[in-house]
């Protein structure tokens, strides 16, 4: 079903890329973000949660670009900070929607009294989420500030060798974090790994979208599975904080369902990681840049 909200599209970088082109591609994505945001502010009937989600995705795409360009980018911290502010301003509403969806996806019927208690717990955890229109209005000046920073940043010294170094750094980091996360399987380690899986996925899209490397096809399902595990862990934490739950049987059923789903997903991410990290980071990066240079 269409939500009437357009997804952002990354304009891939050319192999003979210059700093000016990196800036131009970033501004192109920001223009899409602004048009979506303005539509949401002008038309409350458009799916507000989806606007929030797609705007946060755009910020992840941009941060992946900053990490890619980081070795040759002087104002990298300024750009990261400005991008992060936008995502943070929308986090409450997005987190609330995700927690509701996660809870509804579990095969447990919730009595009305327990549902009301859980809804209150979700709201406390994800404030400010009560007024969907406020985060969008707050983001508008932050988006303008980011656009200005991208315009003012010095991209002139950026070269292909810097992008290759940035790409290798993220690939190596993701591989190291995968080993720690799969060994420990705790919330923090899995969440950190997920972040760098997403960064590397979006970096592929800046460089070689549509190129079907065995590992690149697995990045999206891996990121989705890790995201689902994180959502389940957060929901479990909220359940543990409920004061005198209305139904212990319902609480136990939810926690059991969470654990079963988490175990299934851990099996999936282990399989995906085996494929993605079968070859060392340097070999994967070399293949990507060979393909990029031929385009």
UniProtKB/TrEMBL annotation:
Under the heading InterPro entries, the entry gives: CHAD_dom, CHAD_dom_sf
| Gene3D superfamilies, A to Z | CHAD domain
Domain CHAD: from-to ranges:
15-281
A Pfam entry, by short name: CHAD
Q: Where is this region: Disordered?
A: 1-20
Name it.
CHAD domain-containing protein
Instruction: Please tell me the species this chain comes from.
Output: Marinobacterium alkalitolerans
């Amino acid at each position: 079903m269409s939500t009437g909200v357009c997804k952002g599209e990354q304009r891939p970088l050319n192999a003979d890329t210059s700093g000016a082109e990196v800036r131009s591609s970033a501004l192109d994505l920001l223009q899409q973000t602004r048009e979506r945001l303005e539509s949401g502010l002008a038309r409350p009937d458009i799916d507000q949660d989806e606007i929030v989600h797609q705007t946060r995705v755009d910020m992840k795409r941009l941060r992946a670009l900053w990490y890619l360009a980081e070795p040759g980018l002087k104002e990298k911290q300024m750009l990261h900070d400005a991008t992060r502010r936008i995502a943070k301003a929308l986090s409450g509403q997005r987190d609330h929607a995700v927690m509701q969806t996660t809870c509804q996806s579990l095969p447990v019927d919730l009595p009305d009294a327990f549902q009301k208690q859980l809804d209150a717990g979700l709201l406390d955890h994800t404030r400010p989420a009560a007024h969907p229109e406020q985060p969008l209005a707050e983001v508008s000046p932050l988006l303008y500030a980011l656009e200005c920073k991208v315009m003012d940043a010095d991209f002139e010294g950026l070269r292909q060798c810097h992008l290759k170094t940035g790409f290798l750094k993220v690939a190596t980091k993701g591989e190291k974090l995968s080993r720690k996360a799969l060994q420990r399987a705790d919330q923090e380690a899995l969440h950190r790994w997920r972040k760098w899986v997403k960064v590397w996925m979006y970096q592929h899209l800046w460089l070689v979208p549509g190129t079907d490397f065995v590992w690149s096809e697995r990045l999206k399902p891996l990121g989705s599975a890790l995201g689902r595990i994180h959502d389940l862990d957060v929901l479990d934490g909220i359940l543990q904080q409920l004061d005198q739950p209305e139904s212990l049987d319902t609480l136990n059923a939810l926690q059991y369902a969470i654990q079963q789903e988490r175990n299934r997903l851990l099996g999936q991410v282990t399989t995906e990681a085996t494929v993605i990290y079968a070859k060392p980071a340097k070999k994967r990066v070399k293949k990507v840049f060979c393909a990029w240079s031929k385009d």
